[in-house]
Write a structure and sequence with these properties.
Oligomer: homodimer
Radius of gyration of chain A: 21 Å
Order of helices and strands of chain A: HEEEHEEEEHEHEHEHEHEHEHEHE
Number of helices of chain A: 10
Helix content of chain A: 10-25%
CATH architecture of the largest domain in chain A: Alpha-Beta Complex
CATH topology of the largest domain in chain A: Quinone Oxidoreductase, Chain A, domain 1
Number of strands of chain A: 15
Shape of chain A: globular
Strand content of chain A: 25-35%
Largest interface: A-B, 33 and 33 residues
CATH class of the largest domain in chain A: Alpha Beta
Chain lengths: 358, 358
């Protein structure tokens, strides 16, 4: 804790002077510099800050869990992406689940759990409209709202069902299948009647997890042999849907494996997040024409209207024990940068979570 | 004529012996060998053949016009594409308009004009179900049913409206815009209220034709400077729809120019038809995610149900003088192979047509 205090002088919070004057001490992680390639510890700074007390319509939330996600890497660059870039010297942000500890908003009583977008900090003062109340499901940790019931879950759900238009009886391939999103894509496909579910992952342990725990029909380690060859063996009759988490040679392999009218949901290209020169695209892209393929990119934040549907359906599967998910939980705000980089490197299995209170 | 006779021994026509015994002499172009790269005259052979007289339910058609199209290049390879490959030693086929000269099919009287799939030959004996009766539109040649009112017209119509989902007020970019399909895409977009229509073509004359005759808002010669730079200048506010006729660097440029939620209709990649090693794909394909783009390939033969809609709407535009089209007409069946290669090399402006009777 004390190393947070010594890192940095507290930043005056805009508007603090106009409130009751009382402030709340909080710690946060800021962007110290922009990475060139892989992020390093130098890119992050720990800092202490003083928050203003909540005003009318606001709540003070103590964060319990925060999320580290691939898309945050893009926000560390100084370029307009699908989210605005993080600002130098300002705290990072992202999904978090917290508990309301002080409220000036009707209906958001202290003790209520909320999902919101002010992660990477201990406390946050937020407008009631920016917080979504979440219900605890018996046997399921609240961190699920950052994973299986949160943006990764929605990404899997919307990508497979709405973007790729998966239908019962089709064969599905998922790259990055041991990740937070990929593992759910495969399971949703299985629960909705896929004829075959194939996944790729970056280690033999993960591959075993896919077939033995998540119920994938086949899986392979993409580091061991060309993806195109391995996919052809794992899905000898071809695929109808490809859920792309990684880009690169996986997409080329999927194009080759597609049957006619195949659809790819393109969901971030983790393989190019940390490269400075983008790799060439797939050499076989012209297959899109002959096979009548559709490649469709999407950003989950465009599809928040589907969150209630997703939580209802996935929540039922969770309660019934039909859906398995795994978290890699790292304790302590100070370890969030390392957790983030580990996630980018694929150290985690399932959703990478940072627990702030334990 | 006599050089047809000397080229080749007539092929016995299967089933001829079982018919009335009378035969019809016809000339045809056969596939003599498969090209490696660009087709050459050696790949084609002229031949004379004897056709059986039509049986019950069949008509004898004399071809007036035949079509040469880019997709035929793919059929010259010995590989399953979206159409079956042409067979060595057998006549080529493709779209043709002819006149019924003998009929054993009710409702298809002699003198009726029909559109059918047995081009590359003087005469064809065809089942009534394989022939579609076409009406002559005043002032419009019958060859229009091979172009503006035929497969190129349907390709433009379906690709722009159904595949790319063009909507009034959007900006459209078309590659190969002086071709049979591209020129129609731009005009349909204009007639349906595009905010901006931009085309690329391979010569300054074609570029002038696009802006001066077809009503494109801007056009450029892709041989003169990088497509990405020229497109950025021609569509400084970006594009919503890209109609891809060529693949390659045009697609890369379109990906860069797309606004959010842009859609590409991918219609054949003429730039790779004659290359033996496919070029790398676009380096910026990951933009598909951030911009939420959709790339969708299609084959016009999947969309024949839209032919009546297209003929009705485009026919009205033609009658009203709202739609301009141009044909490059080559006379004589014996010149069809050269016309085909010229079309692949982009010598034509508008639809390349071979006239068999004049």
């Amino acid at each position: 804790m004390s190393d947070f205090m010594s890192d940095s002088t507290p930043d005056p919070v805009p508007g603090a002077a106009g409130s009751a004057g009382r402030t709340i001490s909080s710690r946060e992680i800021r962007l110290a510099s922009r990475p060139d390639g892989w992020p390093t510890p130098d890119n992050f700074a720990r800092a202490a800050t003083e928050l203003p007390a909540p005003r009318q319509g606001q709540v003070l939330v103590r964060n319990l869990f925060m999320s580290v996600d691939p898309y945050m890497r893009g926000r560390m660059n100084d370029a307009e992406s699908y989210f605005p870039p993080f600002q130098l010297g300002r705290p990072l942000d992202g999904g978090a689940v917290g508990v309301v500890v002080e409220s000036r908003a009707p209906g958001l009583l202290p003790g209520v759990h909320v999902l919101h977008g002010y992660g990477w900090r201990e406390y946050a003062v937020i407008d009631a409209g920016q917080a979504r109340v979440v219900e605890e499901i018996p046997g399921v940790p609240l961190s699920a709202y950052l994973g299986v019931l949160g943006m990764p879950g929605l990404t899997a759900y919307v990508g497979l069902l709405d973007i790729a238009g998966f239908r019962r009886g089709e064969a599905v391939f998922v790259s990055g299948a041991a990740g937070a999103v990929g593992g759910l894509v495969g399971q949703i496909a299985r629960l909705k009647g896929a004829s075959r579910v194939v996944g790729s992952a970056g280690s033999d342990e993960k591959v075993a997890y896919l077939t033995e725990t998540l119920g994938f029909d086949a899986a392979f380690n993409y580091r061991k042999a060309p993806v195109m060859d391995q996919l052809a063996r794992a899905a000898p009759e071809g695929i109808d849907v490809y859920f792309d988490n990684v880009g690169g040679d996986h997409l080329e392999a999927a194009l080759a494996a597609f049957r006619r009218y195949g659809r790819a949901a393109m969901c971030g290209a983790i393989s190019v997040y940390n490269v400075t020169e983008p790799p060439p695209g797939p050499r076989n892209l012209s297959l899109v024409v002959g096979k009548r393929l559709t490649l469709r990119g999407f950003i989950v934040s465009d599809h928040l209207d589907r969150l209630p549907d997703m939580i209802a359906e996935m929540g039922t599967w969770l309660r019934d024990g039909d859906l398995t998910f795994r978290e890699t939980v790292v304790d302590g705000l100070e370890n969030a940068p390392a957790a983030f980089v580990d996630m980018l490197r694929g150290v985690n299995t399932g959703k990478m979570i940072v627990r702030l209170v334990h």
